Amino acid sequence: MPRDLINAALKGLSRPATVIAVAPGRVNLIGEHIDYCDGFVMPFAIDRSIVIAAAKNGSSEAHLRSEGQPDAAIDLTLPQEIGEPHWANYVRGVIDGFQQLGYDIPGFEACFVSSVPGGAGLSSSAALECATATLLEGLLGISLSKKQKALLCQKAEHDFAQVPCGIMDQFASTFGEENRLVMIDCRSAEVTLVPFENPDLAVIIANTKVHHQLSDGAYAMRRQHTEEALKWLGKPSWRDVTLTDVKARWNDLGDPVNRRARHVVTEIARTQKAAHALAQNDFLLLGELMDASHDSLRDDFEVSCEELDIMVNLAREIGISGGVFGARMTGGGFGGSTVTLCKRECTDVIMTTMRRSYQQATGIVPEIFCSRPSRGAHLVD
Ligand code: GLA
Q1: Alpha helix (H) ranges present in 196-281?
Q2: Catalytic-residue membership of 245
Q3: Mean pLDDT value across residues 213-221
Q4: Is the pLDDT of residue 213 over 80?
Q5: What is the C-alpha to C-alpha distance for residues 231 and 252, in angstroms, rounded to an integer?
Q6: How would DSSP label each residue in 62-92?
Q7: Which band of pLDDT confidence, cut at 50, 70 and 90, is reported for residue 132?
Q8: Which residues are 207's β-sheet partners?
């Protein structure tokens, strides 16, 4: 339980809190940019969260406070609209989702505190949405199903942050459990919690501290390419498309849409293989698949960037002799973080080397830490 965050959130309220909600960010091990293509993804909820402490204030307004951000006031009697300050739009979007379900939200005061780095590809926005939804459940004394809650939060991101994201982030933040990966079949929206508790394994997250673009069209453009490709291929779902199909229509699809299609098909296959490798404790194979995933994201999907490539290459140079199984970018890309699978006993040396070498290569001080699968969105008693 993130006690420091909870205490900080409690301190930010002018009255005693009656509800405390927590929701984590996520890291994705493999299965990138295929959640909106009916693919499989394998994220886990990290041990970094957003905490909201709140209490009803007897009014019909929500008063929101978050350190380092302008305060926000939201009139709960009106339909929600995108507005200022920007950070409160995620909250407005979730409030809108509850209002659409017919809930009458009482006025409240809330203080938000976060340990999920923003703009780092670790889904701080999904954490904010899922924490808000959990808070509203607490204030209303209701409970949505996890799936309904995650989909409501995804809609908030679509409508109020205007990012046409898939379902991975909100599902990971909602369904996360300690020591479990959240394997999602994005065609059926079915979740399987996969054990991930080998004491010899560790996951290193390296935030490059650069963020080039995402909501300004590059993400939406990738999604559009995949939709265009599927139409050309004439199949109902990416799950029905093979690499042979893509190669047969290579010239018709044209560049870069043909490479986008190749990424989708090969990444779906890699993720299925990765699930199998994990079940067999074959971490060497899992690492190779992660490496191949990065190469495909860099060359075919073109969502990596120089800093992500540098960070990934630094981990790869350490290699298996230094305890590294594999490394790749994680999340939407264009900056943000990498994920490295490694031997636990080697993590300190690996992190020190990556930190030093990345700084030497780029002049940027990265943020590098280990994380483990943690509990998803919940209320604190
Ligand atoms: C962002 C989106 C997710 C997913 C990833 C890429 O995090 O929110 O839905 O598409 O990018 O895998």
Answers
A1: 218-233, 243-248, 250-253, 257-279
A2: no
A3: 78
A4: no
A5: 12
A6: EEEEETTS--EEEETTS-----SSTTHHHHH
A7: very high
A8: 337, 367
Q: Where are the beta strands (DSSP E) in 115-249?
A: 180-185, 190-195, 201-211
Q: Which among 343, 367, 341 is positioned nearest to 354, based on CA atoms? A: 367
**Residue 47 neighbours by CB distance under 10 Å:** 18
Residues 320-376: tens digit of each pLDDT? 999 999 999 999 999 999 999 999 999 999 999 999 999 999 999 999 999 999 999
Show the ligand 1 pocket: residues with CB < 6 angstroms. 32-33, 35-36, 123, 165-166, 168-169, 331-332
Helix axis angle for 168-175 and 124-140, nearest 10°, is 50
Q: Which of 105, 136, 117 is nearest to 21 (CA)?
A: 136
Strands 201-211 and 180-185, bridge-based pairing: unpaired
3-state helix, strand and coil shares in percent for the chain, rounded to the nearest 5: 45, 25, 30
Express each pLDDT in 272-310 by its tens digit.
999 999 999 999 999 999 999 999 999 999 999 999 999
Query: Which of 169, 282, 309, 348 is the catalytic position?
Result: 169
Strand ranges (DSSP E) for 38-178?
40-41, 43-56, 61-66, 72-75, 108-114
121 Cα to the center of ligand 1, angstroms: 8
Q: Report the run of H or E that residue 324 belongs to, with start and end.
A: strand 324-330
Check whether 214 has a pLDDT greater than 70: no
Range 18-28 average pLDDT:
98
HSE at residue 215, side-chain half, CA atoms within 13 A, is 11
- In the reported structure, the alpha carbon of residue 129 is separated from the centroid of ligand 1 by a whole-number distance in angstroms of 15
